[in-house]
Amino acid sequence: MIAMLLRFVTTLGLLAVLGVVGFFLDTMLLNVFILLVSALGVFEVMRATGLSARRDLTLLALTGAMVIPLVGFSALATPMIYLIVFSYFLLLVKKYGKLRLIDCAMALLFGTVIPLSFACAIFLRDTHGAQAGGFYILLALTAAWASDTGAYFAGRFLGKHKLAPVVSPKKTIEGAVGGVAVCTGMMIWIGVGYQNMFGGQVNMIELAIIAPILSVIGMFGDLSASAIKREYGVKDFGNIMPGHGGVLDRFDSVLFTLPAVYLISTHLPLIVT
Amino acid sequence: MIAMLLRFVTTLGLLAVLGVVGFFLDTMLLNVFILLVSALGVFEVMRATGLSARRDLTLLALTGAMVIPLVGFSALATPMIYLIVFSYFLLLVKKYGKLRLIDCAMALLFGTVIPLSFACAIFLRDTHGAQAGGFYILLALTAAWASDTGAYFAGRFLGKHKLAPVVSPKKTIEGAVGGVAVCTGMMIWIGVGYQNMFGGQVNMIELAIIAPILSVIGMFGDLSASAIKREYGVKDFGNIMPGHGGVLDRFDSVLFTLPAVYLISTHLPLIVT
């Protein structure tokens, strides 16, 4: 009961923070928020996989996690990424015999993929402006969290058949179906709301088609994070959000839905104006 | 003696192939060539690190190595890269308990970084056209190979002080200086030649400044490859080019100079027209 209450209060806190970031979406606040989430996420996964024992790699990965959201879409982005990759090889040569290639590979992977995924929120705003960009970001968050919440309740009341017993034993097929349904409904509701509020034309047929796809992508992100946690024998990536766990426990699905929404927005735009 | 001759003949063969690719630079031949070099390179490093024992990862990495040069700069590029990264996580979840995250990380790293680096030759052509693009590609190859050759001869006759005794015991500081000098001279000569042949204006001062930097980057690429080979106890990455070794033994420096030249071409263009 207390755990439930704690989780609820944390959720309110998270939503409040996201609300403030959303209100100032047009400012550098978004970049700073993404920077913090990226750095925390990278640190969490390095701690879970034991990589954080290496100071040099941790420092390098955290630098990447902070630089990438700061440079965003600017002309500095590609040179910075080159410099970051280059630095890992510099370290590999300099610490030869004391640093394994696999540790470099893991740090480089986490230290670039996580910030690049989160930075898609910045790319969305910078490509489409705060209004349409905000709409797309909201879709990515909904795909992650409405699916999750829908699946939790549908699974609790209807769940019978296990979805992925080895990786995530609590998930059921009935829950997944419920999650997809709730997510699709929520996303269509957001689409209608966007049309009414801002007068932009949203392609509702496309939205209805991609909503379930994004929902499945979000659930799969959750499964991927579970597989990593299980392999390294950790229950949660952290405890910065009491009741939820770490940043990665809450944002694991978002890591997969944000880039997917960004690609949809550039290749098959939902907003017709 | 026979080894020297073999090496010389292979060099001629490689130059002939590059000549043909250069002549048809404006066609898909470049993409196909980069596809082959990427696939071979990815396979070689996976074999050297023992990863090629995993059929699934090898298949996935080779797919990436072939898809990335094919899509090049087209609208398909980012969705394809997303799909490739996504596929690794699909495999990780599907083969849970039988596939380690570190193996996935290594395969994903090699299977994207190597083709993306090589694909910079395609990006150079698609951004600047065959003429200026060809000039930039030639600079990247020169930075890699003129440095290497210059360092070999300068080191042989003047070499006294070791450069990196642990990682690559044969390299000397005198050799490195000679390599940088030869590379800088060659690149300036290419710049003058380009001006005379095509009438384009090349910023010679900038060229003289970046030539030694690119030369050092190329040598560092060589050192990085040596560090990886030593860690895994292999002498060469392969033997497809008798006397030189594998594709990666010959193109290791190019992997570092090509992206550097691409970034220079987009941020500080050498050709003023």
Features:
homodimer, 273 residues, mainly alpha, two-stranded antiparallel ribbon, 9 helices, 4% strand, globular
Describe this structure in words.
Two copies of one chain form a homodimer. With about 270 residues, the first copy, chain A, is mostly helical. The first copy, chain A, is built from nine helices and four strands, in the order H-H-H-H-H-H-E-E-H-E-H-H-E. Chain A has helices spanning about 1-25, 30-50, 55-70, 75-95, 100-120, 120-160, 175-200, 205-230, 245-265; strands spanning about 160-165, 170, 200, 270. In chain A, strands 1-2 form a two-stranded antiparallel sheet. In chain A, strands 3-4 form a two-stranded antiparallel ribbon. In chain A, a hairpin with a 3-residue loop joins strand 1 and strand 2 (about 170). In chain A, helix 6 crosses helix 7 (about 175-200). The radius of gyration of chain A is 19 Å and the shape is globular. The relative contact order of chain A is 0.13. The model of chain A has no long low-confidence stretch (mean pLDDT about 95). Chains A and B meet through helix 4, helix 5, helix 8 and helix 9 of A and helix 4, helix 5, helix 7 and helix 8 of B.
In short:
Chain A has 273 residues and is mainly alpha-helical. Chain A has nine helices and four strands.
The stretches of 5 or more residues of chain A where confidence is low (pLDDT under 50) are none
Helical stretch tally of chain A: 9
Mean pLDDT of chain A: 93
Q: Trace the largest sheet of chain A across and list its strands.
A: 1-2
**Helical percentage of chain A:** over 70%
**Outline of chain A:** globular
Measured by residues with Cβ under 8 Å of the partner chain's Cβ, the largest interface is: A-B, 39 and 39 residues
Distance between the termini of chain A: 48 Å
Share of residues in strands of chain A: under 5%
